[in-house]
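Field: sequence (string)
Field: structure_tokens (string)

Example rows 1 and 2, in order.
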Amino acid sequence: MSTTTTSTTTAATATATARPRVEGAREQEIYDAALEVLEEVGYDLLTMDAVATRARASKATLYRRWTSKPALVAGAVLSVKSRALDPDTGTLRGDLLASYCGPGGLTETRAQSVLSAIVTAMDRDPEFAEIYRRDFIDPKHAAAGRIFARAQARGEIPDGIDLDLLVPCLAGIVLHRAFLLGDEVTPELVGRVVDHVIIPAATRGAATPAD
């Protein structure tokens, strides 16, 4: 290898090593900037340039850490989502309220403010939808499934209940009321759905199909 080639390779390596990693507090600052832009203009109009400007960073810095807009937005949304809770209070009702009204649950304030943008992003951008389902929805669904499975093991839920159908119902009803009826997502709303829909459906047994 020539001296010139060696020097060029060494310089490139030194430059790559010298580039600061985007992590820790700085990473969260960029995530916060992305969330602010997302809340203001929505997913479609959010650009890497806009986030870089808001975060006082270069676009090159963003692309060194996030390869695409979907990756950045998914990371930003997930940064304010607590890991899927898996409470075990001893009752189905207690577990559902602890999971859906606690950190990372449906009542989390900032999550609500970007939820409509998330729904739009999932509809418009398959890459974002894949990341969000994999990193957030799937773990939340699995945690909810464990809540119902434990309740069934305790005898709270009789055999024959279609848990696959029942598990996503709480989130589905609450989000329907939020998006289509304009209700505010509060612990009181979640409690009403749990008490008047989920618990009765889970504990009364499946209806016998008519002949």
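Row 2 begins here:
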Amino acid sequence: MNTIQKVTCFITHAIIYKHQAIKGEDMREAILAFIKEQYPDFSVNDYISRAAMDKIRREYLVRLMTLEDADITQTEQEVIDAITTNKILTEDIEPIIDQKLTLGQRYADKIAEFGGSWIFIISFGSFLLFWILLNVWILGSKRFDPFPFILLNLILSCLAAIQAPIIMMSQNRLEQKDRLRSENDYKVNLKAELEIKLLHEKMDHLSLHQNKILFEVQQMQIEYLNDILDEIKKKN
């Protein structure tokens, strides 16, 4: 009865099934050289478990990234750490930003939101119309702000002077949100690109391993055919 062959992982020294391991001769030369840098005694006849191999591939991607760009930014370092620990970078930044808001920033957002709405336009237009009608027809000789409505102009000027910096504060907050969103998108895209490289590495290994198995199967078929031909020749 055939038993499933077991091997020892060179890195973790754990006993694993052979189909759960990768042999040194089946690895790409770049990965093999990278492993030998850390484990000089590793040879093409040794085995590494798939879990340990995944970790090595991630470390190899980090090496490639640091070689391509000597000046690693904080954002790229976060991506490197996420790849090493297999951490998910996608996150909702809105709650994070809103937790750090001061009372003045909250009021600035609400005032800017109200000032850019149709409710403000209609209500303020109605106020101007009522002011004009009150000082032209309704009050008559008792009007407190006759034409050209100097008091009204003063109120409008003060409102504009106060509203402009409040709107700028809100716009700065929106710009900060957009900057954080862009930074988060960049981290996610960069991690996705590196993960795709890792996936290509795995696919290359699978293709090489499958081709080797197919070649062995073909060799066995040829041997069987040769045995059959020899039997036929002996009978004839």
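free_text_note (row 2): Residues 148 and 214 are 95 Å apart (CA to CA).
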